[in-house]
Amino acid sequence: MTVERTRVIVDDDPAGDWTAPGVYRCAPGVYRIPLPLPNDGLRAVNVYALADGGGLTLVDAGWALAQSREVLSTALAGLGAGLVDVRRFLVTHIHRDHYTQAVVLRREFGMRVALGRGEQPGLEALRRTRPGQRHHREQLLGLGAHELVRELERHVPPPVEPAEYEFPDDWIDDGARILVGEGTPDQRELEAVATPGHTRGHVVFADPAGELLFAGDHVLPRITPSLGLEPAPAASPLADFLTSLELMRSRPDAVLLPAHGATGMRVHQRVDELVAHHAKRLDTTLAAVQDGRSTAFEVAGALLWTRRDTPFGELDLFNRMLATIETGAHLEVLAEREVVTAEDRDGIRHYTS
Questions:
Q1: CA distances from 175 to 191, 204, 245 (A)
Q2: Fewest C-beta atoms under 10 Å: which of 47, 130, 184, 272?
Q3: Which residues of the chain fall below pLDDT 70?
């Protein structure tokens, strides 16, 4: 395989349209490939191709859709390669837009798939999924969102294919060192860093020598990642997320290579912004409780959402579900800090100040 033998590769431009199909050089031997997410507000997911001797290592894989596979194949051809040249996928977490295409392609081409060990409970739950099952039904009921559950039950749930959630070949442990391109000019050593929060087993891949961070969904340049949206959520995903942000802040700064959004931002800058955002959100959440709202659903309804300060009632069904679950995560942190008191009554968690 000869990398960069065509002229379709361009240097990544943080000011450009990050979702436009193509191959974008982020650093020597590192290429960003945006893959489409049809009917998904995120619009695209960045997969990163790393030169690995006579092949490629890919960080994340995309959603197992025909369109995504076609775009990936075309991009790899621009690198003088094909799917057969992919040696392995290093996957940051189990959400479908990151993991499922790796599983499907492995069946055909035999590359290895690696995933953070903390994702095992979520993966096991996904593999047990029954037709029509809604993983978040009981969670939402406990948050007082009976209205949302009734609305969800009037819609056919998006299908989950357990076969797309087969186990990885390799479980990645926190601190694991992964050598890419050994013995070549593109050699680099990645460090896997456990960053629970967005999911309980999320990992990022740090390249200290290259001052790069393959951040998955842990640090995103324009939006805040969802919290607790997984079939086996942690007890306090926001607490985990804030601890993981502190960890990123304590490490050497790096260029942010996110799964969604443009590259080029510095990790420390964005971490500081995310911490400030959640501090403000905790304050507004507390204020809603002090005003007499007691469940996560009630509190979520009193808050504004997205960068556009959209009222809760104007969000679509999926985003109202996300907002409710995220509000529950913020309320749990307030309870852990003993700013509010939590009490379960009739299967619903209530909070008082």
A1: 6, 10, 16
A2: 130
A3: 1-7, 40, 131-134, 156-158
- Residue 101 region by backbone torsions, left for phi larger than 0, else alpha for psi between -120 and 50, else beta: alpha
3-state secondary structure the chain: CCCCCCCCEEECCCCCCCCCCCEEEEECCEEEEEEECCCCCCCEEEEEEEEECCEEEEECCCCCCHHHHHHHHHHHHHCCCCHHHEEEEEECCCCHHHHHHHHHHHHHHCCEEEEEHHHHHHHHHHHCCCCCCCCCHHHHHHCCCHHHHHHHCCCCCCCCCHHHHCCCCEEECCCCEEEECCCCCCCEEEEEEECCCCCCCCEEEEECCCCEEEEECCCCCCCCCCCCCCCCCCCCHHHHHHHHHHHHHHCCCCEEEECCCCCCCEHHHHHHHHHHHHHHHHHHHHHHHHCCCCCHHHHHHHCEECCCCEEHHHCCHHHHHHHHHHHHHHHHHHHHCCCCEEEEECCEEEEEC
**pLDDT, tens digit (0-9, with 9 covering 90-100), for 282-296:** 999 999 999 999 999
Distance of alpha carbon 244 from alpha carbon 249, whole angstroms:
9
Tokens of 76: 């790899």
The string over 89-125, giving b where at least 16 C-beta atoms fall within 10 Å of a residue's C-beta and e elsewhere, is bbbbbbbbbbbbbbbbbbeeeebebbbbbbbbebbeb
Give the CA diameter of the chain. Answer: 65
pLDDT digits (tens, 9 = 90+) for 9-57: 999 999 999 999 999 999 999 999 999 998 767 899 999 999 999 899 9
Output the pLDDT for position 4: 42
